[in-house]
Design brief:
Helix content is 31%, strand content 27%. The two termini are 19 Å apart. The longest helix is centred in the C-terminal third of the chain and has 11 residues, at 65-75. The protein is an alpha+beta fold and 81 residues long.
Length: 81
């Protein structure tokens, strides 16, 4: 996850999101996440980004959420709100 974020062209970003591990039904499973971390197991971790709080040199927290999501979509190609 960190390696993928480091490939973004802008280095000063603060995202809000959640790291998850999915179960066999593709549902987020907190117990699987905890077990993977505890066992230092190489599970397939997914980071769901749902907000952008800081961009380059701008604090975006005063903007409405839908505007921050639009900026986030532009930063992360191939995504949608």
């Amino acid at each position: 996850i960190a390696a993928a974020i480091n490939q973004l062209p802008i280095k000063n970003l603060i995202f809000d999101g959640e790291i998850v591990v999915l179960d066999k039904q593709n549902r987020s499973n907190f117990q699987l996440l905890q077990n993977s971390i505890k066992a230092n197991k190489s599970s397939h971790f997914i980071y769901y980004m749902f907000d952008l709080l800081y961009y380059d040199k701008y604090d975006l927290t005063s903007l409405p959420l839908n505007e921050r999501k639009k900026i986030l979509e532009k930063i992360l190609p191939g995504t949608e709100g």
